[in-house]
Design brief:
Layout: H1 42-49, H2 57-62, H3 67-94, H4 97-130, H5 138-146
Helix pairs in contact: 3-4, 3-5
Length: 148
């Protein structure tokens, strides 16, 4: 009669077997490990408000202890000021006789493109802010950095 070897069981002094190198088929992969998003909870709402025209005053006045929210609120306000300034200049130049007629004719295409451009800046600012990044526009970011 032949004896069968006992099943592979670890004895009290043996180490447990190593875990498998790959997950079993059908199992979901582990979640990616990385830094959590920079903004969370109230910060996300404030960062979105920072790029919505006059609503940027809410995070600017309410979140004085959070420098990141303050930076984005100041950036949003300066984008708003640049947009208003651009429209004022375009309106004043429109009253000049020859240039005004050119602007009036080209305005059908020009005005919507300008509006879409500023809207794209705002959306890009919101996306970057919620990811913990900063939208650094050449002249505006310099003013934001100097704003105390």
């Amino acid at each position: 009669m032949s004896e069968t070897p006992p099943p592979n069981t670890p004895e009290s002094g043996d180490a447990p077997p190593p875990p498998p190198s790959s997950p079993p088929p059908g199992a979901s992969p582990p979640p990616p490990s990385g830094p959590p998003p920079a903004a969370g909870g109230d910060d996300t709402v404030m960062l979105v408000l920072a790029y919505l025209w006059i609503l940027a005053l809410i995070p600017l006045l309410a979140e004085k202890e959070k420098p990141d929210v303050q930076w984005h609120a100041k950036n949003g306000i300066l984008i708003m000021v640049a947009e208003i300034g651009f429209w004022v200049v375009l309106t004043v130049v429109g009253f000049i006789p020859v240039i005004g007629s050119i602007i009036a004719v080209a305005g059908c295409l020009l005005f919507p493109l300008i509006f879409i451009g500023f809207l794209a800046l705002r959306v890009l600012g919101i996306v970057k802010a919620t990811k913990g990044e900063k939208l650094r526009l050449p002249v505006i970011a310099d003013f934001v950095d100097q704003w105390k």
